Amino acid sequence: MSKLRRFSLWRASAPVALLCAGLLFATSATNARGTDLRPSRNTTLAGLVEEQSRRSASLTRQHAALTQDIEKLQAQQGSIEPKLAKQLKDLSDEVGTTPVTGAGLTVTLKDAPPEVVKDNPDVDADWLVIHQQDIQAVVNALWVGGADAISIQNHRVISTTGIKCVGNSVVLHGVPYLPPYRITAIGDRKKLQQALDDSKYIENLQDYVVRFQLGYEVKNESSIAMPAYEGTLELQSATVPGFEKSPTTSPSATG
């Protein structure tokens, strides 16, 4: 009689246990949404950077396309005088909002390879990675060499472009990028190369290239198709929260 009772209890509890297991699996699948619940931290960070870069690039392209549509509609309506339209085109060429082509150079910068990092545990980690100063030094040297246009990671550099380090990535126009970093310049290749060779900062960088195998490569380009700058041209300045500037008042007259 006792055996029959235990068997009946098992038959009654088995479906309940299976139902609970099914609910747990369903909950895990819903929370994970088809992804690993415990992904590698490094993989997650790198993937996040790449995802945000792609998203920003997509939004930037949409912004540029809408801007071009507006300009075409303005031209069709004749709202811009021919003289003013030519002046606008000339300024666009100078600012960098029109694509350009020509010969030039591409400089590629890379962090030290993993084996070098592993074999030098006592070396300052900052010595083994490319920093914003390295990218800025290359860009500045190329401007000195008479570059007509420059791009970083295939994004056009203009006068308001800022290059900042955030962790192991470099932020350009608010978008993070991971190495390798490719800086391309259109101009006289001999003059551009000479400017790179004359740069004291790049000369110092070359020491780390030799000691720790940082990547520094210069490649001649016979034909470069450089895109136009597609971001906003509005200037923004920092403000203090809650602080409002008082209106300018003219001094009272005294007599």
Automatic annotation (TrEMBL):
InterPro entries: DUF881
Keyword Signal attached: yes
Listed Gene3D superfamilies: Protein of unknown function DUF881 (3.30.70.1880)
Keywords for this protein: Signal
Signal among keywords: yes
Residues in the signal sequence: 1-32
Family designation: Belongs to the UPF0749 family.
Protein name: DUF881 domain-containing protein
Species in which this protein is naturally found: Kribbella koreensis
